[in-house]
From TrEMBL:
This is Trypsin-like serine protease. One of its GO terms (molecular function) is hydrolase activity. It holds the Pfam family Trypsin. The keyword Cell division does not apply.
Length: 280
């Protein structure tokens, strides 16, 4: 009797185990149909992480130009593998002159991917001694400087320079090109900020009689924007740097201020000479 009872218990336990397994399988199958039982979640699209080895946007060639041990002072753009372009007055803050080797260029500062700061080694060519805070219309056409950096950042594509007249800029915009202007001015000056809702203008349309070599825009230039690029993006979204931000021009009679830049026609030939001399 005891043996029979034990056999019966084992049979009932085996039946119960088989029943529980089947019910679990059915429940799991049902849940798999509804929500994926113990399965990997459905794949979702992820945003790729931008790295220096991946295709980089052209704006990474724009960076901050700072004096070692101080706050940010200007903006600069890589225009050749080892040359950056900025405003000359960035070397002449009030009451002093900065040595080139006191400056550091950081491409794509404040954004990813992150690049190491690059030391400035020398002033390669200078438009003129333009002093910050004392810039007038005659100074603007001289307000440019090519600085040599070491080492050359091989991951970055330099911005091409194109010398365009005011009329040519207007025609390119009418044909579908887009205007881009930006600098590290405004806010905490830690990130590149584009100027919105502004465009280049023909100074004659504003009743201005300015010397040659000056580009005028309706952009409000902020401290720290100096040296930033003024660019035309063609229909293929390729950049063409045609001017460098210099200063904000105040107008009489309560009229809105204007942004002043030095046209590439004032310095493009100097860059060509540098390339020729380095080839000799």
């Amino acid at each position: 009797m005891m043996r029979g009872s034990a056999t019966g218990v084992r049979q009932r336990m085996a039946w119960l185990s088989h029943t529980v397994f089947n019910r679990t399988a059915i429940i799991c199958l049902t849940l798999a149909v509804l929500a994926g039982c113990a399965a990997k979640p459905p794949a979702t699209k992820s945003t790729p992480t931008l790295t220096p080895s991946a295709p980089l946007p052209w704006t990474v060639a724009i960076g901050s130009l700072t004096e070692r041990g101080t706050s940010h002072i200007c903006t600069a753009s890589l225009v050749r593998p080892n040359l950056i372009l900025t405003a000359a007055h960035c070397l002449y803050p009030p009451s002093r002159t900065l040595a080139a080797d006191h400056l550091v260029f950081t491409p794509n500062a404040g954004r990813t991917p992150v690049f190491d700061p690059l030391p400035v080694r020398a002033v390669q060519v200078l438009g003129g001694q333009v002093h910050e805070g004392h810039i007038d219309a005659l100074d603007v056409a001289m307000d440019w400087a090519f600085l040599k950096i070491v080492p050359a950042p091989r991951e970055l594509q330099p911005l091409p320079i194109e010398a365009l007249s005011s009329d040519q800029v207007m025609k390119r915009l009418a044909a579908g090109d887009h205007f881009y202007s930006a600098g590290f001015g405004g806010g905490d000056k830690a990130m590149l900020r584009q100027h919105d809702d502004c465009d280049p203008v023909d100074p004659r349309s504003l009743g201005l009689d300015l010397p040659g070599g000056i580009t005028v825009s309706t952009c409000i230039i902020r401290p720290g924007d100096s040296g930033g690029p003024m660019v035309l993006l063609d229909t293929a979204n390729k950049p063409h740097l045609f001017a460098v931000i210099s200063s904000l021009g105040q107008r009489r009679g309560g009229l809105a201020p204007i942004g002043l830049g030095v046209s590439a026609g004032a310095f493009a030939h100097q860059l060509d000479r540098l390339l020729l001399s380095s080839a000799d």
